[in-house]
């Protein structure tokens, strides 16, 4: 148990959650020089990049997100949780902000508040702000994300602790951005693509059969084993930032100890290997992908080390392509169609069922209907695109996106396409038309835990792909 954390005998008290002080990278002398002499505007012909990070591990007992079976607040830490920021400024002074969070998810309401505050205080366009969670299943409940599974079933004391954490998180992220903006310096950007193969399509491979199938090269189902890597180097060619992604659930661990799971270990390992570097992970379209086998700390460390080694294999080659200091950002919300909506009688039947999560969702919508709010026909789904150097097209999608999307978008738009999921709003699973037709957890029953009133309409995949293609065309 970390010093200063209350033990289990104090869990009935209201918890005030605090965060540790932000940590900047770079030497003291370099930081002083930057603050005193570097102007806010980018130097002609180069990127300006600023970074900052802060620990966001709860300091008191808090419910853990991701699994319905855990209803005891967590008060112990296996691996610290982090919020990290990177600001990019191109030669025309356009700004983009990447924030990575060791959390299972954030909802639309919190995302909108954070983006609004950052935009107002730091004059960054909302289209250039990407909030990306790692989807670790050993992080805290954040607001009403996965509300029917966590927030609505929590005690009043637990809800107050969740609300306190969410408020502190918002203010911490906004302050972090200010530090990253002050920390800008001339840099160059290069990008490349690596490979790691521990992700397994969980819909097509029973977990207990994976070791044997792997030995026989008989694993089934689509996967995306690519490891996109963005490296930021300063004027002395020192590695300042490495940003990397992978399409796989962060579900190695299911204990009641805070950790960033395998992405947390991968980031920690890269920062250990590269002194003064800030490592930032984003989750790809891995909603139907699991790290298998799993369930031990040793495996979480093992997968983290393998992912870090895959990133290093890219960094150590001479094949990374440079990115000119130009930046374009687009962000729109698509009215993503929902399927047939339940009737009041159907909701009442769900409320009377013995399933507490189904009841939790049904009661939520019955209360809204009674207050005069009709069931929605669609959901405002976020799709964003950054174009770096006129070459790299980086797409940000909300929700838990299955692997079909990254495979299809790269096929349609070209190999220089990265697809980040779990970005800006984690409102539900995002199945492809194939997965929706097949049914199962990702296309059907997962909607209960997120709280949307029904499944998605069959048009979901085409709507999202059409918007990504429009943004690629600059529309």
UniProtKB/TrEMBL annotation:
Keywords, comma-separated and alphabetical: Membrane, Transmembrane, Transmembrane helix
A Pfam family that the UniProt record links to this protein: Ceramidase_alk
Record domain Neutral/alkaline non-lysosomal ceramidase N-terminal: where: 47-277
Membrane spanning stretches: 23-42
Top-rank lineage group of the source organism: Bacteria
Name of the protein described by the UniProt record: Neutral/alkaline non-lysosomal ceramidase N-terminal domain-containing protein
Source species: Roseiconus nitratireducens
Lineage: Bacteria, Pseudomonadati, Planctomycetota, Planctomycetia, Pirellulales
